């Protein structure tokens, strides 16, 4: 070994051990880059061949994209309009953290409006949004994929608004794709406040499209200042930080590297942690309360979050509270767990922290994940570092205080209106007896990922007779070795019971979820009220490599009124909700031609008359009835009706 290499090695042993909090796992010198710009590997996963310097960039929230227009009804319910161009471009987010990248020509990305992550859409709960996505990808990623390989051209995209109860044609069905020079318009209900996000969902290339940049936040907010009906717990003026967690790996040209393990259809992990597109950022904060919205938008990696002080003591369990999950606010906040907040791919959590007593201190947003109960997740040199929180000496005079004793002004927890405690208890009793309505087994065979032994490509629907507005208990299971973050589209659900991994975790319990962390050998009972929309929806593993290699299937919501499933093995659980008539059959088909992508030049002009027409169609009238007779209720109360305030 040359003296120079030895010197550099020693420098890096020093850096790993002292300048930054050391990894508590393994020997850092074994897994840090050697500094000779050679690739290195951890558990067979390839790392970036360059020296990384954490905490050089300053954190900022992703850019907010303001609506271009607002169109309102006389009763104050509005529709906000947006246009987003999807195109490929070169950006330089790594120059500071990866000095070698300054010598290269920039990193190629797929972007929404030229940004990674995509701009944040922020819509007040109770108001719709209409978004036109224009596919303009043609320079850096010119490859064609079916169905854009004939008269239609280019790299297909499909947009899923994750967390939204969208009707099927607007849900980002994997085969409902938009080709180059085409546009697809999506209409979203935003019927309850939550940290939603939007990301690509194109068939078999979702992992690449999302990894290369196609993901962003779509916040549905209750803040009065943005037209919501008011936040609970004095959150209105507590500063928000929007943290999108991702990991990337670079090749020798500073391009996003598609790891060979990905080519083996297993997983994709990186050694560069991005927080909202910024590698290992510093975050200047004040000694006051903050609200953190967390989204795991990685391809495969789960994170186990804690906040450490500079002595590596966990302060989060004392100073932070979890206030929301995938589907929005919890009923009551809970303490940050001692064992850390586990955030699997696609999960969202919100927590608040009181940094009032931390003036002048350094804190770390820390990934405490190790290799326990997971298959081959590589723990690179800096995998434990996410962000360095630099608390200033002082703050403005009287910053707002989180107050969990203040009531929730508007009951916006939709899930508690459609699944009450008696539903929950009934489901729990069933689970305790080992009973369920449907079973979904996640497994692997010959590098194909399957659900109940079938893949997406087998064109068999996994559950073809789910009754509109009825509830079902689904039993998810997987064998040893692999873990799967499972996403069921359309619904917010409750995780009722987990066998394995110590049961349901505090932050999963009684929380509205749309992703369940199916740990290795786990068996999980999930209670969902299906509906209110009819039609076909996907459910899948959200490890995007597993999803693309076909751990994805469909379920179909049918009319529960007319006994279509009389011969089904799963009789509907009929109750008053089944009497609510919401006939949206036209929109049951996710491939509906009426709403499919078309050449951009053929799109109707996006003017005020057009937007008024789309608002007047009121496709989400289940949430936004114009009057009491808009939806035939047959004497029942419409639990889906959303509250809105003038925006
Ligand atoms: C969006 O609107 C807000 C006011 O609500 C304004 O402060 C901000 O500058 C606008 N952003 C852009 C990019 O125009
Ligand atoms: C497009 O690709 C699909 C799938 O590979 C293939 O079946 C089809 O024939 C291709 N179409 C054209 C026009 O090349
Ligand atoms: C990965 O999946 C693709 C598509 O499903 C398949 O063509 C390929 O053979 C798989 N690779 C391996 C190594 O199994
Ligand atoms: C709970 O909701 C069900 C409908 O799923 C309804 O039949 C029942 O009366 C409700 N129970 C309570 C206690 O509100
Ligand atoms: C679908 O719509 C396109 C126009 O967007 C039209 O050319 C095509 O004929 C339609 N297909 C069907 C099956 O209706
Ligand atoms: C209720 O709204 C529907 C849809 O706009 C309309 O057709 C109907 O006339 C309204 N009924 C009343 C009583 O206003
Ligand atoms: Cu999986």
From TrEMBL:
Domain Plastocyanin-like: 439-557
Pfam families with a match to the protein in the record: Cu-oxidase_2
The keyword Acyltransferase belongs to this UniProt entry's keyword annotation: no
GO MF assignments: copper ion binding; oxidoreductase activity
Keyword Signal: yes
Endpoints of the signal sequence: 1-18
Alphabetical UniProt keywords: Signal
InterPro entries noted in UniProt: Cu-oxidase_C (IPR011706), Cu-oxidase_fam (IPR045087), Cupredoxin (IPR008972)
Protein name: Plastocyanin-like domain-containing protein
Organism (species): Adineta steineri
């Amino acid at each position: 070994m040359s003296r120079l290499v030895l010197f550099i090695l020693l420098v890096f042993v020093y850096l790993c051990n002292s300048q930054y909090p050391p990894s508590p796992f393994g020997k850092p010198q074994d897994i840090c880059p050697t500094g000779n710009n050679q690739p290195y590997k951890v558990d067979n996963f390839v790392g970036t061949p360059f020296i990384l310097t954490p905490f050089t960039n300053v954190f900022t929230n992703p850019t907010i994209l303001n609506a271009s227009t607002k169109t309102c009804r006389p009763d104050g319910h509005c529709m906000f309009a947006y246009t987003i161009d999807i195109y490929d471009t070169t950006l330089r987010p790594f120059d500071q953290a990866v000095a070698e990248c300054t010598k290269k020509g920039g990193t190629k990305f797929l972007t929404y409006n030229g940004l990674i992550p995509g701009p944040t859409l922020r819509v007040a709960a109770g108001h719709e949004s209409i978004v036109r996505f224009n596919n303009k990808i043609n320079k850096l990623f010119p490859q064609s994929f079916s169905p854009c390989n004939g008269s239609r051209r280019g790299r297909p995209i499909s947009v899923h608004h994750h967390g939204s109860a969208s009707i099927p044609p607007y849900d980002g069905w994997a085969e409902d794709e938009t080709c180059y020079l085409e546009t697809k318009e999506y209409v979203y209900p935003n019927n309850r406040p939550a940290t939603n996000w939007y990301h690509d969902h194109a068939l078999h290339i979702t992992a690449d499209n999302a990894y290369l940049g196609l993901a962003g936040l779509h916040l549905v907010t209750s803040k009065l200042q943005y037209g919501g009906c008011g936040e609970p717990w004095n959150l209105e003026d507590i500063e928000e930080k929007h943290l999108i967690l991702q990991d990337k790996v670079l090749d020798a040209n500073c391009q996003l590297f598609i790891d060979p393990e990905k080519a083996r259809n297993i997983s994709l992990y990186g050694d560069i942690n991005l927080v909202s597109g910024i590698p290992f950022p510093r975050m200047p904060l004040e000694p006051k309360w903050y609200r953190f919205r967390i989204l795991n938008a990685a391809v495969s990696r789960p994170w186990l979050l804690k906040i450490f002080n500079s002595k590596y003591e966990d302060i989060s369990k004392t100073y932070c509270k979890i206030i929301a999950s995938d589907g929005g606010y919890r009923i009551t906040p809970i303490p940050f767990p001692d064992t850390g907040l586990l955030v699997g791919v696609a999960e969202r959590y919100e927590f608040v922290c009181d940094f009032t007593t931390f003036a002048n201190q350094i804190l770390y947003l820390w990934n405490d994940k190790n290799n326990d109960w997971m298959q081959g997740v590589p723990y690179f040199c800096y995998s434990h570092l996410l962000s360095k929180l630099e608390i200033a000496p002082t703050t403005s005079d009287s910053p707002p205080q989180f107050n969990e004793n203040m009531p929730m002004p508007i009951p916006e927890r939709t899930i508690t209106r459609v699944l009450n405690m008696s539903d929950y208890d009934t489901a729990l009793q069933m689970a305790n007896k080992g009973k369920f309505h449907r079973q979904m087994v996640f497994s692997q065979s010959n590098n194909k990922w399957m659900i109940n032994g079938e893949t997406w490509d087998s064109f068999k629907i996994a559950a073809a007779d789910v009754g509109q507005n009825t509830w079902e208990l689904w039993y998810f299971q997987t064998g040893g070795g692999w873990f799967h973050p499972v996403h069921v589209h359309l619904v917010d659900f409750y995780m009722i019971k987990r066998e394995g991994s110590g049961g349901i975790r505090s932050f999963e319990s009684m929380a509205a979820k749309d992703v369940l962390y199916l740990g290795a050998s786990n068996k999980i009972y999930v209670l969902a009220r299906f509906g209110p929309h009819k039609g076909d929806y996907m459910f899948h593993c959200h490890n995007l490599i597993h999803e693309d290699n076909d751990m994805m299937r469909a379920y179909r919501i049918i009319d529960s009124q007319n006994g279509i499933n009389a011969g089904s093995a799963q009789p509907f659980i009929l109750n008053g909700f089944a009497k609510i008539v919401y006939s949206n059959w036209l929109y049951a088909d996710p491939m509906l031609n009426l709403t499919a992508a078309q050449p951009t030049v053929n799109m109707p002009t996006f003017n005020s008359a057009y937007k008024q027409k789309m608002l007047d169609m009121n496709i989400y009238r289940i949430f936004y009835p114009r009057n009491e007779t808009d939806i035939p209720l047959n004497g029942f109360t419409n639990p889906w009706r959303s509250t809105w305030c003038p925006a």
